[in-house]
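Appendix B, example 12.
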Amino acid sequence: MPRLQAERLTRIGARLLEAAGASPEEAEAVAVGCIGANLAGHDSHGIIAIPTYIDRIKAGHIVPGAPWTIVQQSPSTTVIDGNWGFGFHVNAKAMQLTIEKARTSNVAGCTVFRQSHVGRLAAYPLMAAREGMIGLATADSGRSPKMVAPFGGREARLGTNPIAIAVPSDLPGPFCLDMATSAVAAGKVMLAAARDEQIPTGWIVGKDGKETRDPHQLRKGGALLPLGGTEGYKGSGLAAMVEVLCGLLTGLGFGVEPSGRHNDGCFMAVFNVEAFRPLALFKREVAEFARYLKETPAAEGSPGVLYPGEIEYLREKERLKVGIDVEDATWDRLRALAGEYGLAAALGLH
């Protein structure tokens, strides 16, 4: 399994995406987003995804250079049509506009539809947190094939439907929640399959409805389970609410459209902290709250408490030093694409 520095992986991803038809701006947005996910430890949304995005460009499911269209707006709301562009690029522009609106309206929200996979969802609320605001984002996969069985069922009817919230603070790392409403993100199961590793019990069921540790069963008619185990109705309920915000409020709808085209719908909101409390005081108290949580005595067998987002911060610090491991299956796909586009020598992927 090769290990590469983040800068080199970003360059590889960007050059391959450009060769596939992305503009330099789009390619950079996607590559930076993917490698940012690797750095945070979310390898399921990292460099492993770039060959899939290129496959979707070839199939016409992602449209490089697609226009970014505001369908309707008010001083505090925006409805955005991504016209099948790169989700990383479309969603980042949507969040930036929402941040700008929150500067004057204090609270702003947007919906985004007809865009490709948006990657690690936390990336967008973190944009708001860096501007002294609270950011919230939810996402679903529109009417593309589903992965999650509702609680009590065994057939996939929901997406992994993540929720992310980021808060400004005086902490060295972000105070940020980023979670799927399924037991685990589908990409983590795919990553395990690529690495030929077993997965924990409670992540998926096979086509027969029985729990399995074989990640390959997900692609053979299985389904992810909702978050919560025996209390999975909680994760299932959260997923249903995300579906309403990102599928129904955006107009994407629910169920599965036969083409299988991946279509992330997003609802995002930004809250200007200064409209509620002085920002400096709020940031200081969030940091104090995090330290208060961490001072809790550790439970038996636990290394101790981490505040939301701390593990990603620690992983990023480590991986910036030692590099990012790329599983052999993904490395082989990257090498094959480099050969296809005549970039093997330029990228050192012989």
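The domain at 184-224 is CATH 3.30.60.50 (Wheat Germ Agglutinin (Isolectin 2); domain 1). The mean pLDDT is 95.
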